[in-house]
Amino acid sequence: MHVQALSLRACVSAQRPSPAPSSDDTRHLLRAAELAGSSAGLSAPHPNFGCVIAHGPKVVGEGFLYAQGTKSAEVQAVERAGEFAKNATAYLNLEPGDCHGDDSAVRALRQAGVSRVVVGMPHPLPHLHGKAISALRHGGANVEVGGHNLLESGSSIQEALKACQLVNAPLLYRAANRLPYSVLKYAMTVDGKIAASTGHSAWVSSTQSRQRVFETRARSDAVVVGGNTVRRDNPRLTTRQEGGHLPVRIVMSRCLNLPMDAKLWDVSTTHTIVTTQKGARQDFQAMLVSRGVEVVEFDFLTPRAVMDYCYDRGYLSILWECGGMLSAPAIASGVIQKVMAFISPKIIGGITAPTPVGELGMVEMTQALQLSEVAFEQIGPDMLMTGFLQPIPSCQPEVPAVVEAAAALDTSIPSSTERPQVISFYKPWDPYGALSNFSPHSISLPDESGAAVSWNSVEHYYQAQKFRGVKDELAQACVHNIQKARGPEEAARMGRTLARQRPDLVRADWATARIGAMETALQAKFSTYPVLRDLLLSTAGAVLVEASQNDMFWGAGRSGNGENKLGLLLMQLRSQFLEDSEDLNGRSRTAGSATAVS
């Protein structure tokens, strides 16, 4: 009876005409988009979520997703709104959908009694698209979606919807093009030079502009440079800040004509990947590997090949800080979506002085590439110009209002009816991403004294176990900080950094104990959450592969010859669950027969 009433209310709500957006709607949706970008630089790029809960012009609660695996924006906003969330309107820049099996956002809005939800855009990833919208409608909320049933009222609401697109531009590009979102950044003089004819380039732009570059790096998964930049500038490509996200440094060099002692070979704080062609300077490759640098060989090294590789690693946003020799083929291959040009009020002249972009083969001005969405900003004495080489993909698909709202939702099993032979997982927001250690599912396990300790994710628990029982203040402090880390990325960074810098603090038996630690954490996770257990069981018959490109122990590695220990443990746990289920069904049948005989 309750379900029937709920479905009826959902259908009525879905069919009810939406009121024309007010100035309040525009203002709150813009604020949700602004909140969504608040985590930039604090954690690895991920889908950005912001939530504003309001009654008319009055805001009663706000929140944003700090990082993957942390409390959702909607939950935070509801907690801050308290009883004022009842019958309020929730404004979301993006349809909820952080990870399969995590319905906390929708559940919080429904339980709080939010009556209306305004969504800036549907989720662009197919396996998450429309699910939360349908669930909210199924719960009785009136849901209005930008570009669908949100009635337009001039340019103001369009500005808000554009803001919702911009804050998740990397996700939209990745979903539409199966490539990361790439920004080409350079600094040049007013006469178009990025260095003197001698190659000297320190410094073209001002201190203020360089600070903006550091901030942009912190918002990126990786920074790409070519061999010329390494040889001439010897950069560090860090963010120059304490804490926060550190991007991977990627060097592209076909022949590996690189210096033996470059700052990028120091990987004590962040990772470096050198990409090259097969067979190039094997002795130099061995030297890099001995220093902890990852070397990736390609049959033919091109910007597109490297971006395909970055896509497979789950990267969303890439910053290119290369010279003209690399930027030209990157633009020509279509992997650059946005340009970020710092123009300094200097003139250096010189016919042979390098320019930001090398030869593109254009002979007429009519062939010039035109930037769109151009914006200007003065930073110190410099002018920053930004613009898009490729338009931002739109995400305005049809979202059924009545049919999906009336249907019973079962999100525990993936929608695909054809089970693949191999199921890969890596990032939490991808299909089967809930199998990842970074998924937003906390676990509780006993400590050495037997007391229950809560961990925010499997990754939190695993990283802390590296130093369990080590009688050292630094190790014990690291365990404490890992437990308190807001997101699994931070927990991983803390554990990996200390283990790299102070290997003497890692417990002596860790090489063998790590399997048991991971097994314990996985058992707790999939036993605690039925929806995750169902997801794992739904993969029966398929091979599970942790698709990490650089982890040869837990993952499969780029070439697929890694040990894939995480995938093996999950398949082992799946077999255990299947056996338990068969035993339970067998006992149930036996008990039923005994009852019938008696």
TrEMBL record:
Entry superkingdom: Eukaryota
KW DNA-binding (keyword) present: no
Annotated PROSITE patterns: CYT_DCMP_DEAMINASES_2
EC number: 1.1.1.193
InterPro entries membership: CMP_dCMP_dom, Cytidine_deaminase-like, DHFR-like_dom_sf, Eubact_RibD, NADAR, RibD_C, RibDG_C, Riboflavin_Biosynth_HTPR
Family matches, as Gene3D superfamilies: Cytidine Deaminase, domain 2 (3.40.140.10), Dihydrofolate Reductase, subunit A (3.40.430.10), YbiA-like (1.10.357.40)
Any one GO molecular function term: diaminohydroxyphosphoribosylaminopyrimidine deaminase activity
GO biological process, one term: riboflavin biosynthetic process
Pathway: Cofactor biosynthesis; riboflavin biosynthesis; 5-amino-6-(D-ribitylamino)uracil from GTP: step 3/4
Keyword vocabulary terms for this entry: Multifunctional enzyme, NADP, Oxidoreductase
A Pfam cross-reference name: NADAR
CMP/dCMP-type deaminase domain mapped to chain residues: 23-132
Classification via CDD domains: NADAR
Alphabetized NCBIfam families for the sequence: eubact_ribD, ribD_Cterm, ribofla_fusion
Protein's UniProt name: 5-amino-6-(5-phosphoribosylamino)uracil reductase
